[in-house]
Amino acid sequence: PERGDPRYVEEYASPMGDTMQQIAENKTLLGRIGLARGVVSNKVLLLDVLEAAQAEELDSPTGLARLLKAWRAAPTGITYGAQDVHFFFIGQVADAKSDVTALADYLRATYQPEKPPSGLNSEDWRVIARVLANDRKVTQPEWEWGLRAVRAKQCNNCLKVFLSAPEPAELRVARYYEALKEFRAAYGSTSRRKEFGIWELLPTEDPAYAMQVEAAAPPEEKPFFDYEVYSHVVGMFRSTQPIAIQETVLRRWAEKAALPGRDGDSCRELQRRLEALQREEAPRVPALDQTVCTCLDGPLASQDRYQKKVVLQYALDGRLACVEAP
User: Helix, strand or coil for residue 120?
Assistant: First the structure.
């Protein structure tokens, strides 16, 4: 279960780690009492956070102030076998409509990527980023925290969270390429893909921003904004997005479909691409018509009609010269 799941209450309330063994092995009464008191005191602090996080008034100035007070008192990291309690129901803080600035400042100051508390995983860091970006903007100190989290290899999604915030386009685009450089430096050694990082960092749910990022790409990066990247963008279309933007993206996607794939071949994936374009009702574009004819006259010429039926039907529907009777 996720940490916001009530089933985690037992995890926070029950574990004692190896304390029972330590108590049994301790040779003095005072030592055993001290260990037991430590467990009880710790559980009180954890339960204070649990109660505050589950309060009905959590999404209110009073509720968030109560949670912050409990956060400040509770230990970070794994304590007596229990995971870090600050992440219990933290998703509700990230989605809160009330002002969470004080909680965001606390998290940014407390969770230093270079010296992380014990037991955190990449999702924990990502949800901190969500809290920081709750107000739909990312301050420079918050952005720098995200860069540090990437450099320390704590969070491979934090910068994508930040880039999703609807900041001014010029700032967002500049930050994207700063993030790309840091992301590749931290994680690129494990990948042989030259395009590594392009779509991993791109908030594909924002089609207008995706096109702005491509438009600003340096020459060496432009080829990486290919059919596959735009497939991710189209796959994230939502009814709330402007129709005009979606239509522009669909046209761009169709133009990308005319270009060679990442293996350098223009024809091998053509049928699959045409099927996807037709499902999304993408427009016909001259570049794709030309690629279809080039493939039908070239590599696909020896295939039977069934093998190339989608490509052939596309050409017939468009009355392309390569399938018209002389």
Answer: coil
Distance CA 56, CA 46 (A): 18
- From CA 261, how far away is CA 257, in angstroms rounded? 8
SS3 25: helix
Look at residues 201, 199, 259 and name the one whose alpha carbon lies nearest to residue 227: 259
Structure confidence by residue, pLDDT tens digits, 65-81? 999 999 999 999 988 77
Q: Which of 34-43, 80-89, 139-148, 216-225 has the lowest mean pLDDT?
A: 34-43
Cβ within 8 Å of residue 122, ≥6 positions away: 154, 155, 156, 157
What is the pLDDT of the chain when averaged over all its residues? 89
Name the pTM for this structure: 0.84
Scan for tokens 């669909």, then name that residue.
250
How far, in Å, CA of 313 to CA of 307, rounded?
Answer: 11
Q: In degrees, to the nearest 5, what angle opens at C-alpha 159 toward C-alphas 85 and 53?
A: 20
